[in-house]
Amino acid sequence: MILSALLTSVGINLGLCFLFFTLYSILRKQAGNVFVYVPRLVDKQKSEEQSDGLNLGRLLPSDGWVRSAWQLSEEDLLSISGLDALVFMRVFIFSLKVFTFAGIIGIFVLIPVNYLGNQLSIDDFYDLPNKSLDSFSISNVNDGSNWLWIHFSAAYIFTGVVCYLLYCEYSYISSKRIACFYSSKPQPHQFTILVRDIPSSSGRSFSEKVESFFTEYHPSTYLSHSVIHQTSKIRGLINDADKLYRKLARIKSENHSKQKFKRDGFLGLFGRKVNILDHYEKKLEDLEENVRMEQYSLASEEVPAAFVSFKSRFGTAVVLHIQQGVNPTEWVTEQAPETQDVHWPFFSASFIRRWIYKLVAVVAVIALTIMFLIPVVIVQGLANLNQLEIWFPFLKGILSLTVVSQLITGYLPSLILQFFLFFVPPMMILFSSMQGYVSHSQIEKSACTKVLYFTIWNIFFANVLSGSVFYQVNVFLEPKNIPKVLAQAVPSQASFFISYVVTSGWTSLSSELFRLIPLLCRFIRKLCARRNGNKFEVPAIPYYSEIPTVLFFGLLGVTYFFLAPLILPFLLIYFCLGYIIFRNQFLNVYAPKYETSGKFWPMVHNSTIFSLILMHVIAIGIFGLKKLPLGSSLTIPLPVLTLLFNQYCRKRFLPMFKAYPTECLIKKDKEDQNEPSMAEFYDKLVTAYRDPALMPVQYARNVDRHNSPLLHSEV
Amino acid sequence: MILSALLTSVGINLGLCFLFFTLYSILRKQAGNVFVYVPRLVDKQKSEEQSDGLNLGRLLPSDGWVRSAWQLSEEDLLSISGLDALVFMRVFIFSLKVFTFAGIIGIFVLIPVNYLGNQLSIDDFYDLPNKSLDSFSISNVNDGSNWLWIHFSAAYIFTGVVCYLLYCEYSYISSKRIACFYSSKPQPHQFTILVRDIPSSSGRSFSEKVESFFTEYHPSTYLSHSVIHQTSKIRGLINDADKLYRKLARIKSENHSKQKFKRDGFLGLFGRKVNILDHYEKKLEDLEENVRMEQYSLASEEVPAAFVSFKSRFGTAVVLHIQQGVNPTEWVTEQAPETQDVHWPFFSASFIRRWIYKLVAVVAVIALTIMFLIPVVIVQGLANLNQLEIWFPFLKGILSLTVVSQLITGYLPSLILQFFLFFVPPMMILFSSMQGYVSHSQIEKSACTKVLYFTIWNIFFANVLSGSVFYQVNVFLEPKNIPKVLAQAVPSQASFFISYVVTSGWTSLSSELFRLIPLLCRFIRKLCARRNGNKFEVPAIPYYSEIPTVLFFGLLGVTYFFLAPLILPFLLIYFCLGYIIFRNQFLNVYAPKYETSGKFWPMVHNSTIFSLILMHVIAIGIFGLKKLPLGSSLTIPLPVLTLLFNQYCRKRFLPMFKAYPTECLIKKDKEDQNEPSMAEFYDKLVTAYRDPALMPVQYARNVDRHNSPLLHSEV
Lengths: 715, 715
Prior knowledge:
- 2 copies of one chain form a homodimer.
- Chain A is mostly helical.
- The first copy, chain A, has helices spanning 3-27, 34-37, 39-45, 64-71, 74-116, 148-183, 206-217, 232-261, 271-298, 313-321, 351-371, 373-382, 385-391, 396-399, 402-422, 424-434, 440-464, 469-477, 482-489, 494-514, 517-531, 543-559, 567-589, 601-625, 629-635, 637-652, 654-658, 662-673, 678-688; strands spanning 192-196, 222-229, 302-310, 332-335.
- The first copy, chain A, is built from 29 helices and 4 strands.
- In chain A, helix 22 packs antiparallel against helix 23 and helix 24 (601-625) packs antiparallel against helix 25.
- The first copy, chain A, is globular and about 85 Å long.
- At the A-B interface, helix 10, helix 11, helix 26, helix 27 and helix 28 of A face helix 10, helix 11, helix 26, helix 27 and helix 28 of B.
- Chains A, B: InterPro entries: Csc1-like, CSC1/OSCA1-like_7TM, CSC1/OSCA1-like_cyt, CSC1/OSCA1-like_N.
């Protein structure tokens, strides 16, 4: 790729960006789009804009939303979207800091040094536009040149600065985590644990066992428990009832609107409809009865797992952190998820079974990650021009057009890749839910790591180590050769990744900005759901696909920092845009579905450390290839020091992301003692963790109130 | 090595063994040797055999001690020497089970199969005595022969049996561990934790901080605390005083024995002696005064660490398992060691400093392990015949004798190696104590692992991968080639290891049996100490050097199980002898210095798993070399399954070796509530963890009672 081509690409993409910004600014003001652009506001106010008249101001773009997103303070963001959103924004701030520093060094020191070299003296010095991008990378510095020591120093300085920023950020976020805990109201999950693998004994139910165990060993703190039941059958019945209920509500709603015109008309006039209604109502009642019967009979089908609640946070922590039974695979405790975050299936699995599921999931993820590109390449091979002509003979005329054939040859392979990639996050979610996690947040966090591994392998390594899968895997089985192989391969792929950041990065942000593809689908779905009497839902940010994408761009920037500094300005623009867009769209679009209190941060920290080490390994190889063996040897301490820094951070900060310390727990408990509302809270706590499938169902009475949200369960 | 040579070696060693047994049986009955052969009895009865007359029975060997050692039940062993000794014996029982099974398969199945092959058709089939040992190893089976499937099945069956035995043993020992805890009396360390890195604040002493922290956060369970002081200076003074006191006691003792002859003689007669006595007594008083002054002034020099005691075991566990302060590097808690097990130095080091010490120790151990053979080889190179003749010209005549020169060429190199090896365990102890452990047991446990790593590297790998250190390290940097390299190298070294087991294994046991080298030294030291008025001490078993030796022989057996089954009968004899010898001499010689309640077992488990994996890796390589690629591929699941089994054991049993569960702790606590002696125990607990250096000193009054044990500290 030459410089002029890159600049053209940048121009086109910046133009598109600007266009999207303008369109966004106009479209978001249209009344019909509120569900797409400000769903949170809709949810909050429970009122929809009614005026449909034409208004000139609504057709002019405005920058008010950018300003309001920029001016949003951290406290506001925290109160609006919780700590997870704040941490997500801190990832952008951290990246901006890193790439501002890197960009300054890269543009003003490294690019001139690279450009002045003449290792790749393939083109004229003054013919800047036709210069290959490689001229700006380290490949252009002469072998054995002393200028390489500038790169060497840059690697050390950059690592130092990134580690310093990581430390500050880790420290800041962990202090925020504690502060949020201090300011939090009593919440059921703070007082509850999940106990699994309750040992079975003949003649006693699991409920009795739990009761006797905790009253014996934790008499002063134990409050209550609710044993989990096998409810997959009931859940099926309730699903059926739900569908029928929606159908019924829709019919009634249509009925009702017709009645408006005939206020005093009576139901008998709509004979056929009423018959159908009667029929459906009867069916619904039968289903309801079935559900009640099943609920009654299932009460005995207990699963050896229970939510156990305690009177204090510290009492909960005591049970959580100390092994309970003599056998460590019995009475296994873990922190209960937030009530709305519980993932109800998979509770029945025993210790051994969960362990096997986990192994299977790990194997599946590794297989998917390594083998992913094989079917993609096969399908790409099948979907060439000749094959298409054979399959769809009627397209022959169109396919023979030069523009169409170029489009197909150029874009079809990447379209197929994108199509396959589209299925990866849902598959990772599936694998994670197989692992036996009990909450959506854990599943998404685990899927997030998986998607990240997947992206690093299939986008980074598969592109860098172009060749067969077995060759790629082989490289990692010979650790001694890794620096050399990477040093040969990585810089030559620099121009690919620069164009990748420019096109794919900005486009992905723009599509988020425009909210066309993902949200319009949701929009249509929501509208349908509303028609069916369903409750309107504000979308939650899909961390499991967003965080890996953002981190991958960080990985590229850190790895290429001194290899190809040209990548840095584009990353700066990417993170700057991302910062504004995600701040807006926390404000107006996304609502938190759960709160992990910043547990995503350690993942960000680890992947940054990974990128640094990757950079160091490549640096060791590059200085060797560039005939600077001293530089190569002197770089070896750098990854060691970075790993030690990481180890220190694990000791210093990580425990705070796993559990809260005694000091915090007891302070909060003491505060609560003086709260008069605690008695009421305890009352609520007793029923907080009941399986929704076991709650009483009441459809029949609800049917007439078709405007009310669908609550198939009422406490 | 040929068979006849091996049999000769076996004959000589068995003969030596028998001789040692006989000598032992005679020598142990001589009155003068009681300190060497039955020190425990001496310590127990506090009486020495007085009769010195000749007795024919005492000169005849008897097997009573073997019978009593054999008949000793596990309960007796447990009550006499504690759980650690029992676990050590279980290692022998486990090894005996493994090698009985392996021996039967090896001798009756594998050796015939190997012998019938003719891959190494170098010598006559019927000339058994001159057969190379390699004819009994897998090397002799023909390439691609179907007989190799017998070896393949043997590897699977053996792995299955070893894993089953490991599981049973782990289960048995963990149940014993719980049983011992249930039957234990209240002990200070069960109620105490060590808190380190107490945050400093101006104006308040560490003692005040500890008091206020624990009364605030653990008011119902907190009992007392004792802050640790910087006492290295006092310890130096006390050492000086100790020496002086011993000197004085000796002089007085000599004085006293002379007085016996002159009962009414008065001290004035020994003018010179009395003057010296006066001088020394004055000096001792001064020293004592100095110690008191230092103790008084040092009371303010607190270290940010304290032993904190609680009223219940469960209360202690709560503080131990839950992070206390907001900062995880402050208020760091760990289980307190037994009172007699505390290692007082190194308490002052901060979190960061301990961490750095630990890193330094790890680096030092790795360097020592990898580089150890370099100086050895250099010294061995220097100490050859010619060099000796140059250095010691007067030896020229003796050195020219064939016998002497053969002896020097044959034995000097291994003597030098043994000499260097002699320093390894003490060095590992030094490194471990640098790591900041607070108890002797932790230091020894850590040194034990280090010695094991060292032995595996320097005896096993250095012999198998003969070549430069860098070549050896290199092999492990290319994991893909490990199976091949090991498969080529290991079987060819089989005869070396068989002779190693025969000579070194039995000799090391015989020397233990004869107790000549290590114990005679101690005996002399003890006698000297007694003369100086020192207390007689029963030796404690040095686990840190015994366990690695035993495990190393296990490693050899498991690794060579199907490669060279000839090793198995010799290992059987080794473990059988070891079993009898260690059971005796627990009975009569060693006294437990501390009790880790079997915490050594997981190490045994892990090293057995390591040996199995090593065997599998070599098997994969061997089947490849033997042109049985299918066998090679089908062996791959074996190490994976073994690692999964290990992972399962880690989940199922390891937690029980780290801490006791709630169920046990609360049961014991409830039992204690009804004990009337608990009030007295709590009183003792308050002062249980006081630094001996800070206890009041009273030499002056003790001097006259020179027969009493030296107690420089009296509570």
